[in-house]
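Here is an idea for our session: we take a single protein and study its fold together. Which protein we use is up to you, so please pick one and set it down. Once you have written the record down, we can walk along the chain together:
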Amino acid sequence: MLCGCRRAGLLPVQRPQGKNCRSYEPDCSYVPGTGPALLVYVGCVAVVGWLTYRRRRAVLEERRARERERLRKLRKKGKGKSRAVRRP
């Protein structure tokens, strides 16, 4: 899938024109297939971005859970953040 995304991503960026084609000629202004290629590219970027976001959020949540568990164990022993509150 990723390989297809790379290929599709190059098409809209390069926008190939026909041989001996000038930009002001109406026949050369649109290359068939660039619309679907652009949609595939946008879709691939969205999916990869969403997966990256989900992965990062999962890692952060796991880290927070470990920190909460560590602090809970410290409080249970009378240490940690609640220790300063108990001392006068």
Remarks:
- Residues 59 and 78 are 29 Å apart (CA to CA).
